[in-house]
């Protein structure tokens, strides 16, 4: 499938999706969001893809937010629709059933920070800057930022970042738990791909259930989340991969998972 604003690459079981509008620092316009939705749904359905890496073109920006040209002319109705559409795309990414690693290669602002937060794991270049600067535009986050940021870093820090609007460094983002790990900018894609290849060796059905148990379980009371976990634990016992994984351990060999 060809896209105007995305580049798609493959490295074995790892798909690399690059948002490609470097002249506007990879800002997300409606077309790019729609391309992202279609590309991610395709990757979700493709069993040969086990992990995706999402990044931005160029060395300056991951995504510098929603495209402000489109925001400037929105109406109450179109603004609501636009927010819901973006939230849907980010939900697709969060619930893809396979890990999506954000390789944050520069600015991750507004919708860009929200996009990174919808990913499973975030690696950031040491040059990256992250934040929710919407307040400076007279806006609020609209792609789930008020919700995901508070869940990731806690209410007080989310309030500070969203009310204050000032971006933070990659090191500070790591300190508060907004990104998992910071690496040298020149090493970012190599590190992200290496990490993705490592994750890609995991049993795919177990991965899908882990994602589901954490994503859905966090929305449940603890007892219900634990019951959900136990149900998925039981289900995973029906897989060939569980038999292979446990047999491989007992036979002192490496497991080879088939996703069955
Ligand atoms: N939208 C459109 N164009 C952008 C955006 C953007 N978000 N960010 C940068 N650009 C453009 C600039 O206008 C400029 O274009 P041109 O060359 O034609 O002048 C080009 O990219 C390069 O940018 P700069 O010259 O500004 O580069 P600098 O290195 O000087 O600055 C910054 C980099 C600090 C990242 C700066 O570009 C900036 O502040 N950008 C805007 C960041 C921002 O406010 N992002 C949040 C947007 S709001 C949002 O994301 C809401 C999400 C929820 C929406 C919900 C649906 C309704």
Task: Produce a short descriptive summary.
This protein has 260 residues and is α/β, with parallel strands linked by helices. The chain has 11 helices and 10 strands. Helix content is 48%, strand content 16%.
Describe this protein's structure.
This protein is α/β, with parallel strands linked by helices and 260 residues long. The protein has eleven helices and ten strands. It has helices at residues 30-45, 68-71, 76-94, 111-118, 145-153, 155-164, 170-175, 188-200, 204-217, 222-236, 240-250; strands at 6-11, 14-19, 51-56, 61-63, 100-104, 107-109, 121-125, 129-131, 168-169, 181-183. The strands form two sheets. A six-stranded mixed beta sheet has the order 1-2-3-5-7-10, with helices on both faces. Strands 4-6-8-9 form a four-stranded mixed beta sheet. The model has no long low-confidence stretch (mean pLDDT 97). Octanoyl-coenzyme A is lined by residues 24-25, 27, 64-69, 71, 79, 82-83, 86, 107, 109-111, 133-134, 137, 139, 141-143.
Oligomer: single chain
Helix content: 40-55%
- Unreliable stretches covering 5 or more consecutive residues: none
Calculate the mean pLDDT score and round it. 97
Strand content: 15-25%
Bound molecules: octanoyl-coenzyme A
Q: Kindly state the number of beta strands.
A: 10
């Amino acid at each position: 499938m060809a896209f105007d604003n995305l580049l798609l690459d493959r490295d074995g079981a790892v798909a690399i999706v690059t948002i490609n509008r470097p002249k506007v620092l990879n800002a997300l316009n409606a077309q790019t969001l729609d391309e992202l939705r279609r590309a991610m749904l395709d990757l979700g359905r493709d069993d040969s893809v086990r992990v995706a890496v999402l990044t931005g073109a160029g060395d300056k920006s991951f995504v510098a937010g929603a495209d402000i040209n489109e925001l400037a002319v929105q109406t109450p109705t179109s603004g609501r629709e636009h927010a819901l559409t973006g939230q849907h795309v980010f939900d697709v990414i969060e619930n893809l059933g396979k890990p999506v690693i954000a390789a944050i290669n520069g600015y991750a602002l507004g919708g860009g920070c929200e996009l990174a937060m919808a990913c499973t794991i975030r690696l950031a270049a040491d040059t990256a800057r992250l934040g929710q600067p919407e307040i400076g535009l007279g806006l609020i986050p609209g792609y789930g930022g008020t919700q995901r940021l508070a869940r990731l870093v806690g209410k007080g820090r989310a309030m500070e970042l969203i009310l204050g609007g000032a971006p933070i460094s990659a090191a500070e983002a790591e300190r508060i738990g907004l990104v998992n790990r910071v690496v040298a900018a020149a090493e970012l894609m190599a590190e992200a791909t290496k990490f993705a290849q490592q994750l890609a060796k995991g049993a795919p059905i177990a991965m899908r259930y882990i994602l589901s148990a954490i994503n859905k379980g966090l929305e449940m009371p603890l007892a219900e989340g634990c019951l959900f976990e136990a149900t998925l634990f039981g289900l995973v016992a029906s897989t060939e991969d569980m038999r292979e994984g446990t047999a491989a351990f007992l036979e002192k060999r490496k497991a080879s998972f088939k996703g069955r």
